[in-house]
Every structure is written in C-alpha cells, then in structure tokens.
Amino acid sequence: MSPAAYQPLKLDGDGVPKPASRRSRFTAITITVCALLVSLYFLSPLGKAANVYSSNNSEYAKEPVPSMCMNTAPPTVSAKANPWKNLNVDEVVQLRSWLSRDELNLNLTRSDIASLSDNSIFLIENVRPPKADVLAYLDHDGDAPKRFARVTIHHGAAAEPVIRDYIVGPLPLSTDTTIRQLTEIYHEPDVPYNARGFAQMGEMVSAVQRFMTPLENITQELFGGTARGLPNDTLVASGAAPFSFDGSFRRAWLTWRRNTAGPWLHPLGFFQYVSMDGTDPSQWKLLKVVYNHQIFDSNEEFIEAFQNGTLQRLPYPDEKDPIWSSRQRRGPAPDLDDRAGPRSVSFNGLRYRVDRDNQYLTWMGWRMYLGFDRDMGLSLWDVGFRGERIIYELAPQEAMAQYAGNDPVQATTAWLDRYFGMGASVRDMLPGYDCPAEAQYFPATVHTALGSYTRERAICVFELDTGRPMTRHHGYLHEHGVVKGYAMTVRSISTVGNYDYLFDYTFFVDGTIEVRLSASGYLQGGYWESKQTGYGSRIREQTMGSLHDHVINYKVDLDIAGTENSLLETTTSVEEVTHPWLEDDWGKTVLQQHIVHRYIATEDEALLKYPKNFQGGYSIMNKNATNAWGNARGYAVHAGVNPIHNTVVGSKRLLKNANWAQYNLAVSQRKETEPTSSSMWNMNLPGKPTVDFHRFFDSESLDQEDLVAWISVGTHHLPQAEDVPNTRTITATSSFFLTPLNYFDYDVSIDSTNAILVNIPTEAGGEYTFEDYGVKSDFCLPPPVAPVTYSNGVEYGLDGKRASPRTAEDLRKNAELYHRIKMEI
Ligand SMILES: [Cu+2]
After folding, report:
1. Domain boundary residue among 152, 178, 195?
2. Which region ranges are annotated with the description Disordered (predicted)?
3. pLDDT tens for residues 558-597?
C-alpha cells in the first residue's frame, strides 16, 4: 500500500490553508464524506456558484470547503477566417471528381487501386495564398484571399512516367475554376517518376517475396526467422534512402530485422540491394546480397555459399530478454514513485483564448493562426505580440538524418523525412502524458493518396509555470521582486517510422519565442560487430546505435514593424586601446571587447554560421523603425540547445538537396516563388533536387526588403546504451529563440501583473508588505483527471465516407510501412 498522498489542509478565516494538526481517523473520514457531499452539491444543477466556500452541519461545518473549479474550458475569441485552413474532406472529394472529368484528359485511376503504370492523384491540399492578399485581408479589411488547391498527380501511364503538380482554382469549384501546372516554385518543372512517394506498399510485396522465398530455409537457420508473406512472419524489411541520385534509377538497400517490439533495434546484418526501376514490379531485380561483409551478385550465389559451407556466419541472433526493446517498465521503481507527480492547474481558469473553427489563439498579448499540411504538419501564421505582427510564417521545412557505418545501409542512409510527411505522420497525443493534463487540443485533417483522416489531438496548447522567474532582483527601494515565468506552448508530435519528432513553439511574456525540436523513439540500429567500431556504440549483444546527424530546417518570415527589414550582423572583438585617463599603476592600455555592427547587404553573404564562441549573432531589423532610444527595432536569432549544423558536407547522397543543413541560418529575400526550402521529392534527388536551396541566394539585396530567415536546429547523435529503449527528449533536442532586440523601449514583461514587489519595512524590525497587483490564485477543487482515452482518428475513403476502423495489424502496416518503407511480406 502506498502512504497517504497528502495531509488534508485546514483553512483559516481568510482562506489560507494551514497544515493539519492532530487528526483522528474519525475526523479524516468525516471530512472526506463532507467534501464528497459538497462536491455532489456543486456538480448538481443547484451548485452553480464557482470559487466560493461552503459549509454543512458536520463537525467540520465551520471550515470552508472549496467548490469545484467551474470554468475549465478556454475563453473564446473570434478571429477572421483562417486563410491557411486546409481543404475539408468534402472539398477534396469534389476536387477528385472534378479532376476525373474526361475533358481534362488526365486519364486518372482511383489511387487506391492504381498500379504504378496508371495516372493517379497522390495529394490534394490547400495552397497558401499570396502574402500580399493575406495582408490586404488581415490588415486592410480586403476580401478574403481566393482559395486554390495544389494537386500532385503521378503520371505513371505517360510514355516517360513523370510527376507533376497542378494548381486548381479558384474554389469552390465553378465555371471559373481552371487547372494549370505548378512550376514556378520548383527548380525542375517535372519531377522524375523514380523520386515518387509511396501511396501504398503493395507494389513492393510481390518483388520482395520473389527475393526472399528462395531463402526461407537459410534465414530460418541463420536468423531463426522467415519472411514468406504470412501473418506470423518473423522477419521484416526496411529500405534505406535515397532511392535515386537524379531520377535516372530507383534502387534501395533493404535491411532485414526481427519482427518484434522495436524491430529497429533487431537488425540481422543481412542486406539486399534491389532495383525498382520502371513501373512493372515483376521486372524489379535483386542486384546484390551482403551478409557479414561477403558480397553476392545473386541469391543463387548466396545459397551456393551457404550450402557448400564457405559462408562465414555471424552468431545466431540473441533472442533472450525480448522486452528489452519494448517500452515495458523494468527495474525497481524509485522511492515515492508510486505517487502521481505534480500537475499544474489553472485555478483561475485558462488564460488563453481559442477560436477552434479558425485554429486561432491568443495568450498574454500573443496571437497566432495554426496551419497544417501533409508534408511538414503544424505551422504558425500571423504571429503577433501586443498588436504588431512579428512573424508572418513560422514553419518547419525538412528533417534530415545522415548516418555512418560499416554496412550497406548505415553507410548510405540520408533521410529527408518530408518525403514521408510529418503531417501525414502526426499521431493523437496521450493527454496528461504527451501534454499536461489541462492542455487543450486542436484537430488536424490530412489528405493522402488513399483518402483523408482527422486526428482530434493532433495539436496541443497549454500554459505552464516554468518554475523559474522571468526576472527578479533583491533590493531595497522598489527593487525587490519577481515577474513570474509563465510560458505557453503549442505542440505537435509526428512519428515517422522509428523516430518521434516533438515540435514545440513556446511563447514568453517578454516577447520571446522558443522554437524547439525534440526527438524520441527508436534508434535506427545497426548489427553490432567489431568492424563497426568508430561508427556508433554497442547497445546490446548484437545491436549498435549508428552515428548520425539530425538537422531540421525552419522558415521564419519575420516582419519587424512591417515587411521591409534588414539583416544585421553583430560581432564582438577584442581591442587594445589607450585612454588618457589610464595614467595609473596598470599601464597606458587596456584590453576590452568592442561591438561591431554591420548590415549584410546581399544574399551572397547571408549563408551563415553562429560566430565562434557565440561572439555576436544575427538579427532582423527595421532600419526605418526605431525605439525611443533611436535604435533600429529588431528581433534577434538566439541559439538555443545544440546549435549544430551538418557535419558531412559534400556526400553524394545529400549533394544538393539539403544545402540549408550546412548553416545555422541563412537569410534570403522573401518570394512567392521560393515558398519552401525543400520538397517531398528532394530526398530521392540529391543530384537534381526539385528545390535547390542554394539557388535562392542570387545576390539580391537584403536592405529593407521582405526577408526570410531559414534557421536550422539539430543534434549530433552519438548513440549510447541510454538510447534504449527510446532516445530521451532532454538531450535529443535542439532549439533557437527569436527574442526582441531594441524592439521595445524596455523589458515589457515588467508590465505583468503576475508579479510581486516587496516593500521593506519602514521601521527596523517591521513587517514586509507586498504588492501583488490584486492577482490572487483561486482555491477550488480541480476536476478529476479524466481516464486516458485514445483514438486513431477518423479515416475517410476516397469517396469521403468514413472508413471502418482498422485492425491493429492493419494500423501498424499503414503507419510503419509507409513511413519507413517497412515491409511485411
Ligand atoms: Cu538520432
């Protein structure tokens, strides 16, 4: 039995709780019964009053008992219609039907039954409207921007199969609606078919079955498992990317693993290199087999070596302790860990307002709209503070992970996870675990080739006492006090195969924003043997974690006092100077530091790294807007945790498709034709990327122009035993801050009334008094924490009708195979 979680509190006349004195078992039972009765009263229609104390006739009747906290829903706010809201399911269904009309000659086959040699729709979603239209709408009461859809079509039936994007609109569909190819945002007008995304994995099944069936007896003997396409298969495969260099081929290394909890940590050291060239899977070929550093050009050669005894074998897989790679608890729990930990409760009611329909929220002077898309999930728009826009768009762009190792998969893997879709990989969060118990949730709807789905808990919002003062000082003349360190976080989590990405946007009362990306989930484990030394760390008998870098890029379209901004470089250097007043014992010179400001004139100088020792930094300023002290107003990019960039530059598998990863930040002129630093096809086109980031930088002026900062975060991931079972978000995390730089005339957090000012006694030995600006925390009974519930969301077929719930096996296939090309055959 656990000890009592807390001692009941007595309340004195002014409602201040005091620790309980002696209590008998009888009185403890009595107060429990009283509290229950009072709670029932306030839950009944009679008990409407909030935050008042009540009493009854029992022994404890004289002691006030708090009522239930009544207002647990967030206050509302009414925003203009969200210009970035995604299309709804009906609109997408209507668009599919509109696109299928004969007169368009698109010759489309339903995506859920299309083969690779058919034309089919891969994606339909909203187009983000031009900024000028949105600003006219939001700032000048102009018309709502016209809505358009972006449509991605796989032209598998073309003589030269190709992928094309189209713009369809305006919406809603009418006789004015037209379709045209979207090329202006890409550096290559047509996307090679070999760079295509996966709609479903069926195309791989038959091919891989051909490659594995002849090996059934051998895999049983070497690995204790088989992959025959049966429900009880014990081996699963995963492909490594990229699949192509320039679109002229589509090939992948498959690595085989045991089909158990956390299969990513159960590699077998068995690899097959397969060709997926062309649209006929029956023609796909097995090109190589690699096992224990022995290379075979065919299955037949491999079988021959196995049968004639020349195959040098790896140790039989370790099958002991199957829970080690699961998330089941193990080991003794720490002292007092049987008690639930603390949770925060907004006793006075939530302090942020929401407009659920428009996915809009405000908190402590902040405002923002939320957007959500297939490629990168959550994005923030029109982020303002104290009535002024600071950021037009804040959106992740791409997530890179480049590996190293002495095996065909780890040595060649370079993921760009936009390919799999951060939005498509968003999962419902676990209330009270992924976000604090009182967090509010926003839904997101994503459209895919096979239909649409809505997840109710795709985004959470919560306010938290950071437990650390925003500012404080101890002093004597109205100098002693604290401003509370409250923060509001907007979060979304995407599980892309083995990894879980936590996207956090945290807002502070001084005008600072922290953008943070944390990772958890499973390592992409490699097979441990001594030749892997130097490429990671052994984490189990036959498993290693492989060395890799993560770099994630964000688009930050800052608008400081308008759209005309400049890029300021600040550096501090050391100087030795002579001053006339230095005629003293210390000599005539002094060494000191010195600030140098320089505006960076053009994009040519704007591919940037943080200065050594962080002596200075970069900020977006408006030269024509000054604060009261004559300083240009601005926002600084401040490095947060793990301010790294990519280590390996120039590798062929990331040659030109993720050049932003080389820098901590880069600043370019904002253009409608350069909306994003990557594309879903970039992963498979390192030699000929659809979006070539370096081409944004073409000598254009950065002097009082609309600027975009492309800011990266990341981690050098040197895996270790503590990555098992899952990587920890406390160190596998990276962030940057956007913080006011002479934007205000003073630190505006001092305006907060959630603060205290200490008055020292006027007489010696007198009592301290406090100014708390009338803000007092209420005392009410928070509602019980609701039991955890979970949902996989609502799925819609291509016809817009709700699909039947999936079985666990089907859910797993649908999630994992799509995102990490994991196949069960
Ligand atoms: Cu990692």
Report:
1. 195
2. 317-342
3. 999 999 999 999 999 999 999 888 777 788 889 999 999 9
Query: How many residues are present in the chain?
Result: 825
pLDDT at 815: 72
The rounded Å distance from CA 550 to ligand 1 centre is: 6
Cα–ligand 1 centroid distance for 545 (angstroms): 9
Instruction: Give bridge partners of residue 435 from the DSSP assignment.
Output: 431
Identify the CATH number of the domain in which residue 244 sits.
Answer: 3.10.450.40
Of 154, 178, 195, which residue constitutes the final position of a domain?
Answer: 195
546 C-alpha to ligand 1 centroid (Å): 9
Known catalytic residue: 417? yes
Pair 167, 220 in one domain: no
Alpha-carbon distance of 512 to 635, in angstroms, equals 9
- Domain span holding position 61: 9-66
Residue range 409-435, pLDDT digits in tens: 999 999 999 999 999 999 999 999 999
Q: Which pTM does this prediction carry?
A: 0.91
Distance (angstroms) between ligand 1 centre and the Cα of 717 equals 5
Is residue 54 domain-shared with residue 111, that is, in the same domain? no
Distances (CA, A) of 456 to 83, 356, 444, 446, 788: 21, 12, 7, 12, 14
Task: Count how many domains the chain has.
Answer: 4
Residues 57 and 95 reside in one and the same domain: no
Instruction: Name 648's Cβ contacts closer than 8 Å, sequence gap at least 6.
Output: 402, 404, 549, 654
402-438: burial string, b at 16+ Cβ within 10 Å, e else? bbbbbbbbbbbbbbbbbbbbbbbbbbbbebbebbbbb
Residues 431 and 500 reside in one and the same domain: yes
Q: Are the CB atoms for 253 and 409 separated by under 8 Å?
A: yes
